[in-house]
Amino acid sequence: MPHTAHIPSHRKPRRSASKMALRAGVAGGVFSTLAVAGAAGSANAAEPVTETIEMPTLTADLSSVAAAVADATQQTAATYELQAEQDAAVAKAVKQAKHDQADAKKKAEAKKKAEEEAARKAAAEEKARASRSAQRTTLSAPSSSSSSSSGSASATATSQSQTAAAPASGSVGSVISFLKSHVGDAYVMGGTGPNSWDCSGLTQAAFRTVGVDLPRTSQEQSTAGTPVSLSSVQPGDLLYWGGAGSAYHVGVYIGGGQYLDAANPGKGVVIQDLSGYPASGAVRLL
């Protein structure tokens, strides 16, 4: 027995082969896991790059959609605007048609009324002529009168002379001829001729030619003669506008539904239709 046999060996015991294999396997697994994790990390890190590359395509698509929506909105607005314009045009045409129809109806009624009035006046004039003719025949016949009747006739003559002087034969024609000779003269407030007149100045001058002395103003002239209704007015009758005694305008009826007057500064002396400006009343001076 060697003399060193009882001394323990200082050499490290050898590891068994199974332990070494186990450790090698564990190390390999760790390295594999790290490799897989690294690969996965690299893959995950690459994904944002891929999405960043695809973003321009998505933005372009959204721009196209927005442009299409804007075009559609603009087209719809234009369609509504066009429809509104068409509706407004139709409404305006309908309104104008109604207005024209009402105007035509009004003119037709006015024309019919004027024709009826002219016919009525013509009949009244004819009747008045027949009445005057009968009165002349009666007056020309000899008749006896008492003193009382003479006094009554004298009073009547005095009353008539206060209203207007007795006219000469054919006085109506003379008055109308004088008036027509001044058609076209100017209207001037306060005018009494010879080439410019106001309404009462012209009528005063016209009746003066046949010996009828009228007052100067239209208010006074409206009560100077015998009142007559407008339905029985005759040529030569004085027409007035406003109230009797407060008239603001006068003219002379010349027949055929017309009268002659010094109208206003814009018209001057003119012949007008009575239907267009109906008088308020009339007085007979002749």
- Estimate the mean pLDDT confidence: 75
CATH topology of the largest domain: endopeptidase fold (from Nostoc punctiforme)
Q: Beta-sheet strand percentage?
A: 5-15%
CATH architecture of the largest domain: Alpha-Beta Complex
CATH hierarchy, class of the largest domain: Alpha Beta
How many whole angstroms does the radius of gyration measure? 60 Å
Q: Which residues sit in consecutive blocks of at least 5 with pLDDT less than 50? A: 30-37, 39-46, 135-169
**How many DSSP-defined strands?**
8
Strand order of the largest sheet: 3-8-4-5-6-7
Number of helices: 5
Task: Offer a concise description of the structure.
The protein has 286 residues and is an alpha+beta fold.
Descriptors for this entry?
286 residues, 58% helix, 11% strand, 6-stranded antiparallel β-sheet, endopeptidase fold (from Nostoc punctiforme), 5 helices, single chain, alpha+beta, elongated, two-stranded parallel sheet, 8 strands
Architecture overview:
Helices cover 58% and strands 11% of the residues. The longest helix has 124 residues, at 17-140. It has 5 helices and 8 strands, in the order αααββααββββββ. The termini are far apart. Helix 3 (171-181) crosses helix 4. The relative contact order is 0.08. The protein has a 6-stranded antiparallel beta sheet. Strands 1-2 form a two-stranded parallel sheet.
Q: Could you outline the blueprint of secondary structure elements for this entry?
A:
Blueprint: H1 17-140, H2 147-163, H3 171-181, E1 186-187, E2 196-197, H4 199-208, H5 218-221, E3 226-228, E4 238-241, E5 249-255, E6 258-262, E7 269-273, E8 281-284
Parallel strand pairs: 1-2
Antiparallel strand pairs: 3-8, 4-5, 4-8, 5-6, 6-7
